[in-house]
């Protein structure tokens, strides 16, 4: 038994989930979250909150919880002024925002899965290659674009161009010239590089893809799937 040293706090280790479990949670939650009642929405949010906590994504939970509560209250407040066009518009956007925020929890957990492991798992599920190959390229493309965007913004700051929201609204043409044009040009180059790298690494090979991590359902996966089945059963009965 490992003893806790003085001054050292005990913390709960995050569980390792199979990529199929993460994908299933996102798909099922995304399907039900736009058709369920307010009670079902809160139930799904609590489930995804606990799921994200067990998966180790704990730093963002307070912020997402505050955003969910605030958006939920604002939605109810805005719906009380349906006669106002402006408030009705805000209520419309708040309705979708309050249902999108819980999905961020499942999406964050899924996004932390290594692309190679996710592709190997989906290949084991016999996903068509017409979907698998574009997905593999896209999973590597989005993080690279995020890094490129940060690099372009840093260069803009070095040249004395502050990329704030106010300046973007004030000078949309300059934003298009300094930010979007370089990003589009870099995107074309990056897409070609990633596609060639994927082909070089054997993405088109019909053989089963290997993975450093053993792909199998663990006890934690069975627990999450059982909890998801219970939540779905409650949603179907309650509506």
Automatic annotation (TrEMBL):
It comes from Carnobacterium maltaromaticum. It comes from the Bacteria. InterPro entries: ABC/ECF_trnsptr_transmembrane, ECF_transporter_component. This is Energy-coupling factor transporter transmembrane component T. Keywords: Cell membrane, Membrane, Transmembrane, Transmembrane helix. The chain crosses the membrane at residues 24-48, 60-79, 85-110, 219-238. Its main location: membrane. PANTHER family: SLL0384 PROTEIN. GO terms for cellular component: plasma membrane. It is found in: Membrane. Pfam families: CbiQ (PF02361). It is a multi-pass membrane protein.
């Amino acid at each position: 038994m490992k003893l806790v040293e003085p001054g050292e706090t005990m913390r709960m280790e995050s569980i390792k989930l199979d990529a199929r479990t993460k994908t299933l949670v996102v798909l099922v939650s995304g399907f039900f979250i736009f058709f369920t009642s307010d009670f079902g929405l809160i139930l799904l949010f609590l489930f995804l909150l606990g799921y994200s906590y067990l998966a180790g994504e704990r730093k963002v939970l307070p912020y997402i919880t505050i955003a969910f509560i605030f958006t939920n209250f604002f939605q109810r407040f805005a719906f009380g002024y349906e006669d106002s066009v402006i408030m009705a518009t805000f209520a419309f956007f708040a309705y979708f925002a309050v249902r999108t925020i819980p999905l961020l929890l499942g999406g964050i957990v899924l996004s932390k899965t290594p692309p190679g492991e996710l592709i190997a798992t989906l290949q084991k599920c016999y996903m068509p290659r017409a979907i698998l190959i574009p997905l593999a390229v896209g999973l590597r493309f989005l993080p690279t674009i995020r890094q490129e965007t940060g690099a372009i913004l840093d260069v803009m700051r070095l040249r004395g161009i502050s990329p704030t929201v106010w300046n973007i609204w004030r000078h949309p043409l300059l934003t298009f010239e300094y930010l979007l044009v370089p990003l589009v040009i870099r995107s074309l180059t990056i897409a070609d590089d990633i596609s060639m790298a994927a082909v070089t690494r054997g993405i088109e090979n019909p053989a089963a893809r290997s993975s450093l991590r053993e792909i199998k359902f663990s006890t934690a996966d069975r627990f999450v799937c059982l909890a998801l089945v219970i939540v779905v059963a409650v949603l179907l009965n309650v509506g």
